[in-house]
Amino acid sequence: MGRAVTVATCALNQWALDFEGNLERIFRSIDIAKSKGARYRLGPELEICGYGCSDHFYESDTLLHSFEVLGKLLESPATQDIICDVGMPVLHRNVRYNCRVIFLNKKILLIRPKISLANAGNYRELRWFTPWSKARHVEEYFLPRIIQEVTGQETVPFGDAVLATKDTCLGTEICEELWAPNSPHIEMGLDGVEIFTNSSGSHHVLRKAHTRVDLVNSATAKNGGIYILANQKGCDGDRLYYDGCAMISVNGETVAQGSQFSLDDVEVLVATLDLEDVRSYRAEISSRNLAASKVNPYPRVKVNFALSCPDDLAVPTCMPIQWRHHSPEEEISLGPACWLWDYLRRSKQAGFLLPLSGGIDSSATACIVYSMCHQVCLAVKNGNADVLADARRIVNDETYIPEEPREFCKRVLTTCYMASENSSQDTCNRAKLLAEQIGSYHINLNIDAAVKVVVGIFSVVTGRTPQFSVYGGSSRESLALQNVQARIRMVLAYLFAQLTLWARRMPGGLLVLGSANVDESLRGYLTKYDCSSADINPIGGISKTDLKSFIQYCIENFQLTALRSIMSAPPTAELEPLVDGQVAQTDEADMGMTYAELSIYGKLRKIGKAGPYSMFCKLINIWKEIFTPREVASKVKHFFRMYSVNRHKMTTLTPSYHAENYSPDDNRFDLRPFLYNTSWSWQFRCIDKQVN
């Protein structure tokens, strides 16, 4: 009697609508799984078309091409003698479902539609798909002719069923179903399912990985069983980075762990596991066995195939391991770096241009690019031919080998310090020193001539010349003059991104990187269409507090000593005139709040779902030792006034790496008006009543 089963799961860097590339990566994962003796292979959610197709799911082309790819998989000798579990959209009786298609030896065994759809935060699955609501019910699905010609089947089972092989029973979950309070694995486990599979499209959020790992392990801790999780990895076309972490767990303990961040497009985990471990574990859980005796059974699809061999007593099985989690600083160093690499190579650009101000935010962005260069060099050193080919294409040199991060950084990163008469020598020196230490191609320029021309045009037309407030001008004049500087920097950034390589007799263009953090965006402390307006922003979802910790991490791990003076300097926009050659303007004074306070406001507003009144009620307890109720009320009112006045800026926010669950990203994560009644009269009156 077979007891040792060998199974494979994977993390694939799929790309929305890249059917050819997606098929190639699926084939590679199957080849690796078979070469390591696996008899079952699990892939990520919607891996055939890519998870991030969004409204392309409405198109019949997406369904057609998905079936065409499925046909290629079914007819290939590479998929023989291994159960393949792939993800794609399927239209059943004119209803679109997010499905797993499970097949063996040119025969489709089962099409299993998703039961619980993800529809919170960045997820909008209910927009495109319908959940399968018929529990333990199976219908006939009429296959398209292109599939019938390969399989010889006219119909196949479609619905909520499990697979019964010669030696065990497998049940399917899809991503969100693991997170649901009534996860299918509970009832499936009671009905004798021993192997649970989960195909995910789960994206990275700082400090989230342990939650996913805990859910997988807890799924089998109470009920026993083997849990196999596959996940998408990489940037598949938008703001999210899917962070892999494929894993296999047995009876509540992890036995195989995939990487969370890597430049490998295909990563396959293979584990050999003892079914008797599951059976003996379940045998002594009397409460589980009593519940199992009353469970409503699942339809079983019989499969004339075994995941084990008859004579396998000598086959070694996998033992539990300790999961290693990255620190938040490591996550910031690795996640956005991998996202940038995917964006750079898939956009077919020649590198990045970063306006480097000498402050924490732009310096953190530079460090992330430098970390990306480290990852590229490490991947090439480890024999990753895909990364080497991409690097050679990016630098336009067929013989190039990236071996040293600083040297590679000089080829792919151009930094630019844009000085004005309001800039200090300190920030100029800090930017220059950091550029030298990371190796970027660095440019110094002065924007004063352009600023004077623009202001001069206004003066000629109106007959009036605006002045900074320190020279007697109004706050309106001063703010307008600051905004002119900021916007001219954006225009120059794009000019240099397009033509810097041309001027250096090199081909290609550069992607402009933004560097506004999540707290500044929330407060609206940025000029609309300034240097925060860029092609992409790797730190737009990261708080100032986390960025400071990341800068310290870079000092210690990359030996970037230039960051020490950057860390110790007060954050400043340097848009107002200097006083005795020194910066007089600071960010926190301008904002009327600290970055630490902003993080608290952001988490209460988005994660805590707090309006002005609820936020006040929470903060009078959180801050009872440091502020009076009246001071708390004043702070809350000031935040909501500034947030609502500036909310319109979020409609043009540069696409940013999603890293925090209190991101104000207006694209699809934080959906709110951008024209508010900024007096908040009713809400603030409720606060005042409580203060009194």
Automatic annotation (TrEMBL):
Coiled coil: none annotated. Pathway: Cofactor biosynthesis; NAD(+) biosynthesis; NAD(+) from deamido-NAD(+) (L-Gln route): step 1/1. Keywords: ATP-binding, Ligase, NAD, Nucleotide-binding. It is an enzyme of class 6 (ligase). InterPro entries: C-N_Hydrolase (IPR003010), C-N_Hydrolase_sf (IPR036526), Gln-dep_NAD_synthase (IPR014445), NAD/GMP_synthase (IPR022310), NAD_synthase (IPR003694), Rossmann-like_a/b/a_fold (IPR014729). GO terms for biological process: 'de novo' NAD+ biosynthetic process from L-tryptophan. It holds the Pfam family NAD_synthase. SUPFAM superfamilies: Adenine nucleotide alpha hydrolases-like, Carbon-nitrogen hydrolase. One of its GO terms (molecular function) is ATP binding. Its EC number is 6.3.5.1. GO terms for cellular component: cytosol. The keyword Magnesium does not apply. In the C-terminal section; belongs to the NAD synthetase family. Homohexamer. This is Glutamine-dependent NAD(+) synthetase. It comes from Cardinalis cardinalis. The lineage of its organism: Eukaryota, Metazoa, Chordata, Craniata, Vertebrata. The gene is Nadsyn1.
